[in-house]
């Protein structure tokens, strides 16, 4: 049997009115909630817009302040870099002065040592430790001391140049980083919400370990500036020291060179005077030798002049010794002949009458004594000639070899 179709239940009019009322009430409630959400959204939009604009303005202001701060330190670094570069360039010129001064000391030292070696070739009594040698030894000591001092100062200068360049490098690296940071901040300051290339960046707000605090950032640049200033100050002090050393060493070397030259001049004069006196003595000895030779010749002639009468007397005695028998008488003739021989013998041996300077002088001397004196004069002449040669050798060494060689020595101011 077919199922009967059931009709839907019918509501009471009051239900219908209630349902309509509920729809109206629900709609009103939903509308109120929606309006509140819209109002809250608009308030939030306005507030976030205001906050965003304020934050962006604050960021822009902070960025501008940061740019000014970077520019300030960049200017400080630039100024200090310029100062340290200029100071290093000046110090390099002082280094060049030191090198030239050091090089100029080597030739005078070689010449001083050559003078000492040359003077070792003096001979005889002239090989004396005189004032010249003392001053030459002092000059060698002064020059060696100056070379050692200039060498140490040059090493100190090289080290200071290295420190200056190290400070310069630190400043340049700091400036390079600040230039990059300034370029980045300039780029950031130019960005707006309408900039085409803005984008989301993952982990952009992550604070990495390598970040430094503003205090560390300031300290880093400040340390670089202070270090550069310290090295610049040290460099200035070193330049003043170099000036003083160059001036003092040049003065010391010049003074000692003059002392040596004066000692050489005095010694040469002294040797020349001694040589002149020896030459005067030599002339006197040679004159005396000539006189003695003439004296010996006169003595020999006087002896020769007495040999004739002596031989006559002896011949007479010899002849009368042959008288026969009683005629061999020791008579007055025989006695006088014997007396004559004895007298002539005595005169030949001890007394010689000779003519000197137009007058008659009686000279009591023997030929043997005259010849002894002649030999003594010859030895004296030889000794004087040898001593004069010693003086000539000394003069050649001091005046020709040493003094002429020292004329090339120049002590310059660098």
Could you characterize the architecture of this molecule?
The structure is a single chain. This protein is mainly alpha-helical and 414 residues long. It has a domain at 284-406. The protein is built from 5 helices and 2 strands; from the N terminus they run ααααββα. The chain has helices at residues 13-119, 131-190, 214-320, 332-350, 367-406; strands at 352-356, 359-363. A hairpin with a 2-residue loop joins strand 1 (352-356) and strand 2 (359-363). Helix 3 (214-320) runs antiparallel to helix 4. The termini are far apart. Belongs to the tektin family.
Features:
414 residues, mainly alpha, two-stranded antiparallel ribbon, 5 helices, rod-shaped
Please summarize what this structure is.
It is found in: Cytoplasm, Cytoskeleton, Cilium axoneme; Cytoplasm, Cytoskeleton, Flagellum axoneme. InterPro entries: Tektin-like, Tektins. With 414 residues, the protein is mostly helical.
Secondary structure elements and pairings:
Layout: H1 13-119, H2 131-190, H3 214-320, H4 332-350, E1 352-356, E2 359-363, H5 367-406
Antiparallel strand pairs: 1-2
């Amino acid at each position: 049997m077919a199922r009967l179709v059931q009709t839907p239940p019918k509501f009471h009019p009051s239900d219908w009115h209630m349902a309509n009322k509920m729809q109206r009430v629900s709609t009103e409630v939903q509308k109120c909630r929606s309006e509140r959400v819209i109002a809250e959204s608009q308030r939030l939009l306005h507030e976030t817009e205001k906050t965003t604009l304020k934050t962006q303005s604050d960021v822009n202001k902070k960025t501008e302040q940061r740019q000014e701060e970077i520019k300030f330190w960049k200017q400080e670094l630039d100024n200090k870099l310029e100062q340290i570069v200029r100071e290093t360039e000046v110090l390099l010129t002082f280094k060049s002065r030191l090198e030239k001064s050091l090089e100029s000391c080597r030739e005078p030292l070689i010449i001083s040592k050559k003078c000492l070696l040359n003077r070792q070739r003096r001979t005889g009594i002239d090989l004396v430790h005189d004032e010249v040698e003392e001053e030459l030894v002092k000059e060698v000591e002064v020059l060696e001391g100056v070379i050692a001092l200039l060498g140490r100062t040059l090493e100190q200068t090289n080290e200071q140049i290295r420190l200056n360049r190290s400070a310069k490098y630190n400043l340049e690296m700091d400036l390079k980083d600040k230039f990059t940071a300034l370029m980045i901040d300039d780029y950031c300051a130019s960005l707006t919400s309408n900039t085409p290339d803005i984008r989301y960046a993952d982990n952009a707000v992550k604070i990495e370990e390598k970040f430094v605090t503003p205090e560390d950032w300031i300290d880093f640049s400040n340390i670089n500036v202070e270090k550069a200033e310290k090295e610049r100050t040290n460099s200035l002090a070193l330049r003043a020291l170099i000036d003083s050393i160059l001036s003092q060493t040049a003065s010391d070397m010049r003074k000692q060179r003059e002392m040596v030259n004066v000692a050489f001049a005095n010694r040469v004069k002294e040797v020349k005077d001694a040589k002149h006196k020896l030459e005067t003595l030599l002339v006197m000895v040679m004159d005396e030798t000539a006189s003695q030779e003439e004296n010996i010749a006169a003595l020999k002639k006087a002896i020769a002049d007495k040999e004739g009468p002596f031989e006559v007397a002896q011949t007479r005695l010899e002849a009368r010794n042959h008288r026969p028998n009683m005629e061999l008488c020791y008579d007055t003739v025989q006695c006088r002949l014997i007396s004559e021989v004895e007298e002539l013998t005595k005169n030949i041996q001890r007394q010689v009458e000779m003519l000197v300077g137009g007058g008659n002088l009686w000279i009591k001397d023997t030929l043997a004594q005259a010849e002894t004196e002649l030999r003594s004069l010859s030895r004296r002449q030889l000794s004087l000639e040898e001593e004069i040669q010693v003086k000539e050798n000394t003069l050649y060494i001091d005046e020709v070899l040493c003094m002429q060689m020292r004329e090339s020595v120049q002590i310059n101011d660098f």
